[in-house]
Design a protein that fits this description.
single chain; two-stranded antiparallel sheet; 9 helices; 12% strand
Length: 300
């Protein structure tokens, strides 16, 4: 496994509205050296600008370095195991994650910039989400699967055991929510099609690039920070974490935005974590979970 991947990319994602997202950061490292931020170019402008979700899709589909492990900081599916369905009680509830991605992208076909507003405002599906303005759907909490932060996937329970505080992907409210990011990310994954393997929905191939879900807090914990202090906002803290991971420091001094810091640290963490066979075979990851809920790489 040590030589399986030659490049390691971490993408801090965003579900915000708009054509370009200041919350998207992309970092890449090789088998040696410090991680580096990748910049995008605005068409017709000399200076690099913020990434759009479509540009990240193009990067993954057309411009990845050979044998890259790509970590996406978002949920690649919704809870399924707790109730035996993504949307229990809805006749059109998809049977697996890929069908879920297709459903989201189809309903949101008219939403620009890979956003997912039409999905969460759907006349029937909105009942399963907690939305802004105190709009908690009648099915956000289901009988027998109550959780104060909403329905959880099995991998999110594993994250919690590691000291993290995951939130339900059905929750779209609050600074800690990841629901919007996850839904927009699923649109992107659907549009990737067969261009890249997505683990664990797809078995880990023997060669080529692979996309997987990550949780940047797990990388921060591996770098010596507590889950409650996972965010880094200055170069000194970032480079201290990189040193714990055996990575050379990145250049720069003073403040750094937490999106960039998360991506840089996590790309270096992927380099150390990818050779670990145990992380590719979590004890709780069954074939059914791989097909429906997926898993967060690094959660055990």
């Amino acid at each position: 496994m040590a030589a399986r991947f030659r490049h390691f990319m971490a993408i801090d994602w965003s579900g915000a509205l708009g054509p370009r997202q200041k919350g998207i950061a992309v970092a890449l490292c090789g088998l040696e050296g410090a991680p580096q931020l990748l910049r995008t170019k605005r068409l017709g402008h000399r200076e690099p600008g913020h990434w759009s979700r479509e540009e990240v899709l193009g990067l993954l589909r057309d411009d990845l370095p050979q044998d890259t492990l790509v970590g996406l900081d978002l949920g690649i599916s919704l809870p399924f195991a707790d109730a035996g369905a993504f949307f229990p009680g809805w006749a059109r509830s998809p049977s697996d994650a890929r069908a879920l991605w297709a459903l989201i992208d189809g309903i949101c076909a008219g939403d620009e910039h890979l956003s997912a507003s039409s999905f969460v405002d759907h006349c029937e599906l909105s009942a399963y989400f907690r939305r802004h303005g105190g709009r908690e759907g009648a099915r956000f909490h289901l009988p027998g699967v109550l959780h104060r932060r909403g329905r959880m996937r099995v991998t999110e329970e594993a994250q919690a055991r590691a000291g993290c505080k995951p939130y339900s992907n059905f929750n779209l409210v609050g600074a800690a929510q990841v629901g919007k990011s996850s839904l927009t990310g699923m649109r992107m994954l659907h549009r990737l099609g067969a261009a890249l393997s997505v683990w664990p929905m797809d078995p880990l191939p023997q060669s080529g690039s692979v996309v997987t879900e990550i949780y940047t807090t797990l990388a921060a914990v591996a770098a010596g920070r507590s889950a409650g202090r996972a965010k880094m906002t200055d170069h000194a803290a970032l480079n201290a974490g990189l040193a714990v991971l055996g990575s050379p420091p990145v250049s720069g001094e003073g403040a750094i935005d937490d999106h960039s810091a998360d991506a840089l640290l996590t790309s270096a963490w992927l380099r150390t974590a990818a050779p670990r066979a145990d992380l590719w075979k979590p004890a709780e990851l069954t074939a059914e979970l791989a097909r429906t809920e997926g898993w967060t790489f690094g959660a055990v």
